[in-house]
Design the sequence.
């Protein structure tokens, strides 16, 4: 891997900032708020931020960069796909439980559901995330899907996955804003009480975590070697729009060892091209 | 250009959704709110959402995809860079005026400044955007910068530019949430009054606009042809991390015609590689 130290710095930074976010959200609900319970009250609501941060954001981020970890490159790609899918499924499950918690709390407290922009975009994100998982499983885990389809849809799978991850963080920031305005009364949010400042820092941590994950995931030289080959062929052949490139892509998808050799070959050839220009 | 009709659809959709967002924010402040003025009151605050949507979001989005429009590919790259920089500078100017409007309003109404997560992230975004413009001008418009540096920093320039664009939309969504909670009193936001629903739709439009712009900007086959070549060399040579690739990149940066020919050449060679596998 190129610039392994830099990669390591980014992955470690993401792990530290992500873990810090979870610690911050736990301190928020356990120290500043009513703690955690499943009683229809405020303590049940508190599962909402905890599960969203630890599940929908941290686990989703982990699922996104799992293919980038060079220690996993020796593993069978199918095993890695299952781990990737399982992490996303866990994130989705926690997001659903988290959503149930907030609906329960609202219903007990006679607060209307689904009126705010946060709730609209949050529900849209959960539904689209579910759809992304279903489509992902059928395209990349069920063996009946034609391999050219897999290659053709990969850029869209990656784009929508990243978009959803970023979107979920944006929705979390809106949720933090709502909760601080509603719950801080004396002193009010506008008087910058310690809780307000503390949770603002949590928001900043979530943004930094998102930026680190997306940066790590989108750096082409840090991709799993056979994915680098796929990327090269996509970008130079029109890839996702050019299904006729499929058959040879399929051979590479089905054989990691060959694909790794191809990666070296593509690099060598482009290197020569560069030298001759 | 590959899939020109699909590209046209995405660009037109972005233009329509972006324009709709501006119309929505104008209806919000002119019909539902106090209109526009520069008097330190609520009407001055209203410049904040209007200029943020029309300037910081719509103009910034336009600046991002301007290089993708094939009608501009015949133009000199330097001219296009100036247009790109001017659009970003206009977006920044409007963002600053918009920020002044909200500070003025807060000071007149004795509302504290800079206590909310929206204000923290908003100010961070404005400062980083300014920094991005300054660095961008020195790297890509001032002729003293060594060309290998330009090539080496390009992926970071693109990544941080996209990150800032997405970040600004997230901050806008938080701002909408704040404003609706604070300003809707009778009926309250939770009672879903027409204004609440209308502005929620504005929020959804901003998310769709962001998604369309980022999708259009990140599709490699839609890049300006010489940028496609650069992307190929980056992704296969480690590009931004491998400065020794600089000298030949510099030749391509300085000569659009050669670079276009190179694009065809790279495609042909990779196509051959694909066929032989």
Sequence:
């Amino acid at each position: 891997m190129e610039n392994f130290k830099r990669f390591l710095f980014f992955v470690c930074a993401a792990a530290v900032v992500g873990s810090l976010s979870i610690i911050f959200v736990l301190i928020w609900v356990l120290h500043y708020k009513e703690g955690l319970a499943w009683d229809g009250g405020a303590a049940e609501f508190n599962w909402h931020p905890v599960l969203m941060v630890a599940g929908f954001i941290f686990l989703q981020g982990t699922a996104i960069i799992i293919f980038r970890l060079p220690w996993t490159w020796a593993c069978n790609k199918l095993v890695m796909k299952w781990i990737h899918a399982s992490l996303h499924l866990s994130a989705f499950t926690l997001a659903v439980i988290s959503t149930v918690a907030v609906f329960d709390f609202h219903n007990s407290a006679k607060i209307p559901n689904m009126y705010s922009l946060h709730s609209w975009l949050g529900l849209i994100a959960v539904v689209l995330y579910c759809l992304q998982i279903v489509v992902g499983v059928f395209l990349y885990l069920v063996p009946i899907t034609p391999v050219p389809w897999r290659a053709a849809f990969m850029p869209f799978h990656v784009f929508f996955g990243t978009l959803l991850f970023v979107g979920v963080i944006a929705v979390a920031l809106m949720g933090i804003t709502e909760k601080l305005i509603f719950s801080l009364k004396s002193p009010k949010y506008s008087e910058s009480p310690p809780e307000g400042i503390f949770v603002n820092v949590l928001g900043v941590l979530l943004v930094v975590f998102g930026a680190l994950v997306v940066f790590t995931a989108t750096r082409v030289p840090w991709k799993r070697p056979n994915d680098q080959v796929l990327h090269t062929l996509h970008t130079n052949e029109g890839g996702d729009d050019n299904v006729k490139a499929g058959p040879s892509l399929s051979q590479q998808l089905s054989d990691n060892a060959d694909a790794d050799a191809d990666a070296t070959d593509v690099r060598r050839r482009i290197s020569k091209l560069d030298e001759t220009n």
